[in-house]
Amino acid sequence: MAYTLFIADLHLAADRPDITQAFLQFLAAETQQADALYILGDLFEVWIGDDNPEPLLAEVAAALQAVSKQLPVFFIHGNRDFLLKARYANKAGITLLPQQQVIDLYGTPTLIMHGDSLCTLDLAYQKFRRWWNQPWWQTLMLSLPLSIRQRIARKAREKSAKAKAQYMRQDAASIMDVTPEEVPKVMAQFGVQKLIHGHTHRPAVHQLQVNGQAAERYVLGDWYTQSSYLKVTAEQWQLEFDPLPATS
């Protein structure tokens, strides 16, 4: 049976080899008969440029390149890997898509995205997002020496972790979720009744109304504690979860 796969928020990093192993196992086990694989952002914990010589990046590129010889692999940038450019995409055999894309899923027009643009109540993050979406800002960042970019990335991760912890202490975690009113607005803008996204790390299927008609929002899960993916056929849309492999 034909099917299409969607993943997001793996946050691959050298200090989490279990997630990398789970990803490689997923590619080997699930993509053999798939029509396509869509990666909806934050494949990596951080991305400081295509010139980063970290071995993990080459390992992942080789695995994706092998898969891309069997089926198309598409990539939408997340807020952690927005600096991933054509050099790495070509090495990995992946096709870069715009931040918001409507695709035909077995006859169903479906909007796909990372999902961070829907979190409009997180004003501090949205302000930063407007900055890093500017081509001149990205060009400036990538022109810096690799060592400086590594230092900036470490500080950004620390700041992000502190902000998340503060939201949780203030019982304001909803700020980090999508804004409910924004979802039907965006879906109506693109003329769809189906939406797939990641970013919030809250896997679920949400029922809603768009232009007076029933609609669905599929949220992909992160891979910190388990693998998570969406498998879509012409008859069924199913969120799947598998435990991470044990590490020695």
Structural write-up:
- Pathway: Glycolipid biosynthesis; lipid IV(A) biosynthesis; lipid IV(A) from (3R)-3-hydroxytetradecanoyl-[acyl-carrier-protein] and UDP-N-acetyl-alpha-D-glucosamine: step 4/6.
- Substrate binds at residues 79-80, 122, 160, 164, 199.
- Residues 5-203 form the Calcineurin-like phosphoesterase domain.
- One of its GO terms (cellular component) is cytoplasm.
- The chain is globular and about 50 Å long.
- Helices cover 35% and strands 23% of the residues.
- It has a single domain (3-241), classed as Purple Acid Phosphatase, chain A, domain 2, CATH 3.60.21.10.
- The strands form two sheets. It has a six-stranded mixed sheet with strand order 4-3-2-1-10-11, covered by helices on one side. Strands 5-6-7-9-8 form a five-stranded mixed sheet, covered by helices on one side.
- With 248 residues, the protein is of the alpha/beta class.
Topology:
Elements (H helix, E strand, L loop, with lengths): L3 E4 L9 H14 L5 E4 L15 H14 L4 E3 L10 H7 L2 E2 L3 E6 L2 E6 L9 H10 L2 H9 L2 H24 L12 H9 L3 E4 L6 E7 L2 E7 L6 E7 L4 E7 L5
Parallel strand pairs: 1-2, 2-3, 3-4, 6-7, 7-9
Antiparallel strand pairs: 1-10, 5-6, 8-9, 10-11
